[in-house]
User: Fold this.
Amino acid sequence: MSPDPTSQQPDEETLLLQPEGNSSPVKKPQTPLPWRQFSMLLVLQIAEPMTSQVISPFAPQLIRDIGITHGDEALVSFYVGLLHSLFFATEALTIFHWSRLSDYIGRKPVLLIGLFGLSLSMFCFGLSKTFWSLVISRCLNGALNGNIGVMKSMTAEMTDSTNVARAWAFLPLAWSSGSTLGPLIGGELARPADRFPNIFGDSAFLKKYPYFLPCAVPATVSALTWIIAFLYLKETTTPRININQLLPWKKRKISPSPTLEPLPVSSPISDKPVPIRALFVRRVLIATGSYAGIALIDIAFRTVQPVFYATPISLGGLGLDTPTIGTILALQGILNGAMQPLAFARLYDIMGAKKLWLFAVTCALPMVALLPTLNTLARSSGIVQSIWYLVTLQVALMGCTSFAYGISFMYITAASPNRASVGATNGFAQVIVSIMRAVGPAAANSAFSISIEKQYLGGNLVYFVMLGMVCMAMGVGILLPRTM
Assistant:
């Protein structure tokens, strides 16, 4: 029997790592990263975390201002968590279809749609005056956002087994840059007429819409990145369907277009997207579970963190103001961005994929435990210097947990049945992760509200819930294979 032709392409379609413990006869030279295109992808990736993180510093005050809580401080964290969850809930309903579509029409068209959705939804969010208009804006943001899975697919298609670890080390740098700029913009530009009366004090528009300016900045950045992508970004895959075939007014000029149903199983697996059912295999499910686990921990902590900082000390928080919260979150993004390119590839070479992933998730245990510790210290001594030392430690631990993302992305890409199904595999993983990110903020912030209101476990119920999330993720991580 002749060998399967797909078996001749292990570097590009299956094994992204050299097996740990097995020596290879010849070590392959490292392929240089395609910096011109890869750097554009890094720039484009800044827009997404910027739009998602810009609301974090002012979201608690925004919820108070629109009056949905009727003065009940315990409900603030619930509605803040709901705003975060709505984005991921709607994203979960659409992200797989966007990623699957990118396997057929190409990555670039879907990426452009996503950038357009980010820009439009942020302008709408800044103009919102009621809770329901905020809800619609966040849902629009999630429904039109297909960028997450597509960018990961493009990264996989730009790299091979020799340089993929370097690529995943730089991607968090772009994400952290957006995560740094977002809170800074949100914290410094919220309510500009009050904060900068000499500049914006005469603007009736900004007095009526006090949160438009911080939302308009990332919306404009998304619009500018749309132009960059349209003009300069090159397609990384071969489209299987001409996009004109999807336009109703073009169909009469061409032969009937193929549907977006899975291609027949009999087609060559080396160059055809596999059926959706082919993704429900152990290696894909475990890799997806590792991504979902770290994403659940991350989003739960990120949504509770600013609410905890903003909550009065007497109710279980630190009672910090919006600019201070924005500065802390920005410094967190800077530190995370610096740690990833400096340490990720080196730690990966030393520890290997599975051990590094478990180490990163384990760092979340003290990270969460520091929240009640900070409040206990603030109750006894106020906001003293030791508080800031512990906040700094917590921020550093947050950076360490982010190492797990790069490892999960590598496992997911390695688990893809073939290159033609990278988009579908990333899309499937992103659906599960979006569900976790929808559940995480709602669960964590609801637990935070209940902890304040009912004083369950001495007001610490939320931290036990978050520690439970960490333990669940570690259970999944144990199942990860040592090699990919």
Observations:
- The chain is about 70% helix and 0% strand.
- The CA atoms of residues 107 and 150 lie 6 Å apart.
- The longest helix spans residues 422-454.
